Amino acid sequence: MNLSIVVVGLSVTSSWGNGHATTYRALIKALARRGHNVTFLERDVPWYREHRDLTKPSSWTIEFYQTLKDLPRRFGKLIRDADLVIIGSYVPDGIAISEWITSQARGITAFYDIDTPVTLARLGQGLAYLSATMIPRFDLYLSFAGGPVPAMIEERYGSALARVLYCSADIDTYTPQQAQKKWTLGYLGTYSEDRQPVLEQLLLCPARTLFSDRFAVAGAQYPAHIAWPDNVMRIEHLAPKQHPTFYAEQRFALNATRADMRALGFSPSVRLFEAAACGTPVISDRWPGIETIFEPSQEILLASTPRDVTEILRDMPEERRRGIAENARRRVLADHTADHRARQLESYYAEATARRRRKSARLPASRPVQVAEFQGSLP
């Protein structure tokens, strides 16, 4: 089964302030390796253009567009002829693009919600990239949250088929490195206001207590008013190729979860898999369903308070630290690689195709929206 796949996403070329990039890269690379022809459509915007760390992948294609009107003019045939068209969360003008895709595409259409907890928490308040009325129009809803969430999306929002598609680790890139330990605990992630309290409790407070140890926080968009302890190094941005070395230089890596993700649960971040794949033991805040991803105390360490973290950093024997790291890496290799996600997506495509065939035998085809109609509706 060699598919023609089109992905319309936030940005795959720049990881600056953008956690979507490594998720897309890992999945698409795995799909291409499995023989699929993948094209990624990205809106060309200045803040990503100025921070690109991927330009021309060897096994798949990136195309840029400037405005909404570019899509039907330049990529109308590509969308119509694709076996699978995926649009991701946070795409600019995502609702208009989704309306066009679901009207024009002949193949399976899917919404890939890399921000599922945020989407579901704010859907009723109005989002620029998705509306509740759009959800039933997709053949497939790919959720970043697992557990009971996909079934809830089907029941509450009328999704035809909702399935979990977690992020993953690209094990070609995220692999253990030899490096001298520089930091007792490190964190990699873009600033988020609702995640900052977790970072404060589980990294900055321990840093103030363990003043002779060194800590690191890497990521973009942190406001200037944050008071960083003297023993916390701030790194503005690290490209993905630098991540494995950064993890290798830590004794432990912190996973800090956004509020909506903690509330919904079953929503692992990509950094969780990437740090574990690099062989660095992870200390994480607690949220429902984390035990379905890694086994607590054996593959991951959970903390609720600064004291929890301080005791781990100060008292854990080196042999146990290494054992947890090795166990977590084995779990990633067994369950959470990009190839696992590519295979899951193939199975969901087959499931959605079978469902559409059953449905098409009972219902008449709807009239497609013409390119001129789409263009006429644009600002």
Structure report:
With 379 residues, the chain is α/β, with parallel strands linked by helices. The chain has 2 domains: 4-168 and 338-376, Rossmann fold (3-Layer(aba) Sandwich), CATH 3.40.50; 183-335, Glycogen Phosphorylase B (Rossmann fold, 3-Layer(aba) Sandwich). The chain contains 14 helices and 13 strands. The protein has helices spanning 20-33, 46-49, 70-81, 94-104, 116-122, 149-157, 196-209, 243-248, 259-264, 270-277, 306-315, 318-335, 338-360, 371-376; strands at 4-9, 37-43, 61-65, 84-88, 108-113, 140-143, 162-164, 183-188, 215-218, 232-235, 250-255, 282-284, 301-302. Strand 1, helix 1 and strand 2 form a beta-alpha-beta unit.
Write the layout of secondary structure elements.
Blueprint: E1 4-9, H1 20-33, E2 37-43, H2 46-49, E3 61-65, H3 70-81, E4 84-88, H4 94-104, E5 108-113, H5 116-122, E6 140-143, H6 149-157, E7 162-164, E8 183-188, H7 196-209, E9 215-218, E10 232-235, H8 243-248, E11 250-255, H9 259-264, H10 270-277, E12 282-284, E13 301-302, H11 306-315, H12 318-335, H13 338-360, H14 371-376
Parallel strand pairs: 1-2, 1-4, 2-3, 4-5, 5-6, 6-7, 8-9, 8-11, 9-10, 11-12, 12-13
Helix pairs in contact: 1-13, 7-11
